[in-house]
Amino acid sequence: MNRVNRVFDTCKSQNRAAFVAYITAGDPDFETSIKVADALAEAGVDILELGVPFSDPLADGEANQLASERALKSGMTAIKVLDEAREIRKKHKNLPIVLFTYMNPIAYSGDFKKFCNRAVASGVDAILPLDLPPEEDCEFRKIIDQSGLASVSLIAPTTPKDRIKILAERAGAFVYYVSREGVTGEGNSFSANFADVIAEIRKHTDLPVVVGFGISTPEHVKAASSTGVDGVVVGSAIVRKVEALAKGKGTLKQIKDFVKTMRVSVDYPKSARRHPTE
Question: Which of 75, 166, 218, 236 is the most exposed place for a label (fewest CB within 10 A)?
């Protein structure tokens, strides 16, 4: 059993959703980013999404765009992301690491097969290629599968049913449902009105389904968890705390404490329990 499966099984046994945290690798620099990852692990994060910085992150809002800028300015590259993953893995043996990436920085700056193999050797468990359409992924998908990386499929509110089926069936680690249209970013409000789409996804896969985008408060996390999804992703709200740290206006402890308030909000309410224990 791999680390991703083990985490979701553990959360299932505890009758809660997994808490998934996103940060951009190398933000604001290599060493500090590792310390941020340590703080997240200590706060109880179940899965770490490590973003590969890119100069043109079209699916990302302001917070993650600025994070990529800081990381790239500090000298971060796709290969250095794997170096960071390796350092994180040394300290956190059981923490699943998922690469959240556009294809450009990993597929066209060198040998994609070598990158995937090196990712596995660095302790990366899965990869979420944001801009790899299933109609054009045959060659890349084969390389990903052969390397031992598990794949994550991204499904949006506008994804048609026939495409949901394809994406769900091609996933190997879990399915990531984007809870709103548009780019990543914090939101003042969060709507958990996506039960029908989650049900449609579950028709085509037994893999866990997580939800993200716009989830930025403990109340949002509770609302998302109340739907019975298998995991909840928080990204931009954490990245903003890293931004404050980079500006000298925040601390690692503040990041850790902030994430703890999110982490304790993933318990399923009794009405949403998918695996009753009483």
Answer: 75
244-269 pLDDT tens trace: 999 999 999 999 999 999 999 987 76
At residue 207, what are phi and psi to the nearest 5 degrees?
-70, 155
Cis peptide before 28 (omega within 30 of 0): yes
Give 187-226 pLDDT, tens digit per residue. 555 667 788 899 999 999 999 999 998 898 999 999 999 8
The letter for the amino acid at 28 is P
Quote the tokens at residue 142: 């084969």
Q: Do 139 and 91 meet the contact criterion of CB atoms below 8 Å apart?
A: no
Evaluate whether 38 touches 159 at the Cβ level (below 8 Å). no
pLDDT, tens digit, for every residue of 54-65? Answer: 887 666 668 888
- Find residue 27's DSSP bridge partners: none
Rounded Cα distance between 234 and 219, Å, is: 12
CA–CA gap between residue 142 and residue 140 (Å, rounded)? 5
Q: Are strands 18-24 and 174-178 parallel, antiparallel or unpaired?
A: unpaired
Packed helices 236-246 and 62-73: angle between N→C axes, nearest 10 degrees:
40
Residue 45 zone, left/alpha/beta (φ > 0; ψ -120 to 50; rest):
beta
Q: How far is CA 192 from the centre of its chain?
A: 19
Helices 252-263 and 218-225: crossing angle in degrees, nearest 10, is 30
Model pTM? Answer: 0.91
Task: For the chain, list the domains and their CATH numbers.
Answer: 3-271 (3.20.20.70)
